[in-house]
Design a protein that fits this description.
By secondary structure, the protein is α+β, with helices and mostly antiparallel strands. The chain has a single domain, classed as Roll (CBS-domain). Strand 2 and strand 3 form a beta hairpin. Helix 4 crosses helix 5. InterPro entries: CBS_dom, CBS_dom_sf, CBSX3_CBS_dom, Diverse_CBS-Domain. This is CBS domain-containing protein. It comes from Thiobacter aerophilum. Keywords: CBS domain.
Length: 144
């Protein structure tokens, strides 16, 4: 399965905030949308990514009062990215190896969407279920 297939299944809504947005506003947006990351956009271009992990890191480094800081003070400015032709297995390895939970998917300079580790896990389970069904069907019709 390719990453482009995951994006087409989950939709390509991109929730974003500007870099001068406060962390408190970004968190409110994340809670409102029930998501754990937001893309930081400026002039139609991705300039960063803010995830739950970044918030935890910011709390550790600056204390618990992050609300008044701007997103640009806490975000990751150069997130690892994927492209639509990457396979789920490849992306799973990249995300695991780099300990990241969200991956922006880019086509050139254009942001197509964000996939989470949860999206990747769901795709892997779906593939495993399909393989199991095919194997069971094959075994049932095994020539004697």
């Amino acid at each position: 399965m390719l990453i482009s297939e995951i994006l087409s299944l989950k939709g390509n809504e991109i929730v974003s905030v500007p870099p001068d947005c406060t962390v408190q506003e970004a968190v409110a947006r994340m809670v409102e949308k029930d998501i754990s990351s937001v893309v930081v956009m400026e002039g139609g271009t991705m300039v960063g990514l803010l995830t739950g992990r970044d918030l935890l890191r910011g709390m550790h480094e600056r204390g618990c009062d992050l609300g008044r800081l701007t997103v640009s003070e806490v975000m990751v400015t150069e997130p690892i990215i994927g492209n639509p032709d990457d396979t789920v297995d490849y992306v799973r390895g990249v995300m695991t190896e780099n300990r990241i939970t969200h991956l922006p998917v880019m086509e050139g300079e254009r942001l197509l969407g964000i996939i989470s580790f949860h999206d990747v896990a769901r795709a892997c389970l779906s593939e495993a279920k399909l393989e199991n069904r095919l194997l069971k069907r094959y075994i049932r019709h095994w020539p004697e």
